[in-house]
Amino acid sequence: MKVKICGITDVETALNAADYGADALGFVFADSRRKVSPQLAREIIAQLPLEINKVGVFVNESKQKIEDIAEYCGLTHIQLHGEETPDFCNGFSLPVIKAFNIGCHADLELVTHYECEGYLLDSPKGVYRGGTGIPFDWSILQNGMLDRKKLILAGGLNSDNVASAIRTANPNMVDVSSGVETEGKKDLSKMKEFILAAKRYGGKE
Q1: Can you give the residue ranges of the N-(5'phosphoribosyl) anthranilate isomerase (PRAI) domain (predicted)?
Q2: CB of 57 closer than 8 Å to CB of 30
């Protein structure tokens, strides 16, 4: 099972996540308590192993600015977490992950209109687009509507429920942010426990 740790804001957390076995790290460039500057993201990414995917998270940003930040920071993937249209998601220089807030079966229909590298399915929106810490009903993903190879499960995951989430939704990757934090900051022990729990249940590809 592949694991993405989102909301990386410092070098120590990034390097430890890589060491624990994370497959991808997310850097938020949109309004969020985990927002980082392009300069900081570039400094962190420069110290990461090449095999780690570096994902930039954007919300309703211009295509040119996204491309500029991606090139400057050394991103490998672009994650779009706003109201971006299917057409907007096409034509980027890097693979695109489109995020969707899922509350019911009807929300899954929207996903099928997009042709992207991956579909990140998150909980319904809170103050910000993600990181609410509240899971949605994973069982609605059992209808076979979506390509499992593109499915990234997010929203309220932690080390206690990730095995159940994987068993129910059968994603290709799990994504966590607030579920490995203590008082709003990444907790290294929680992060390690989450990665081990996901890998232990889901295998290592």
Answers
A1: 3-195
A2: yes
Task: Write out the residue range of the structural domain in which residue 183 sits.
Answer: 2-202
**Is residue 26 within 8 Å of residue 4, measured between CB atoms?**
yes
* Exposed / middle / buried, residue 106 (Cβ in 10 Å: 0-12, 13-18, 19+): exposed
Position 202 scores a pLDDT of: 65
The C-alpha angle with vertex 19 and arms to 17 and 21, in degrees rounded to 5, equals 75
Is the pTM of the predicted complex or chain greater than 0.85?
Answer: yes
CA atoms within 13 A on the CB side of 160: 4
Structural domains in the chain (count): 1
Q: Do the Cβ atoms of 97 and 56 come closer than 8 Å?
A: no
Helix axes 188-202, 162-169, angle to 10 degrees: 40
Q: What is the CATH number of the domain that holds 174?
A: 3.20.20.70
Paired sense of beta strands 24-28 and 2-6, if any: parallel
- C-alpha to C-alpha distance for 167 and 93, rounded to whole angstroms: 34
Q: State the average pLDDT for the chain.
A: 92
Active site residues: 6, 122
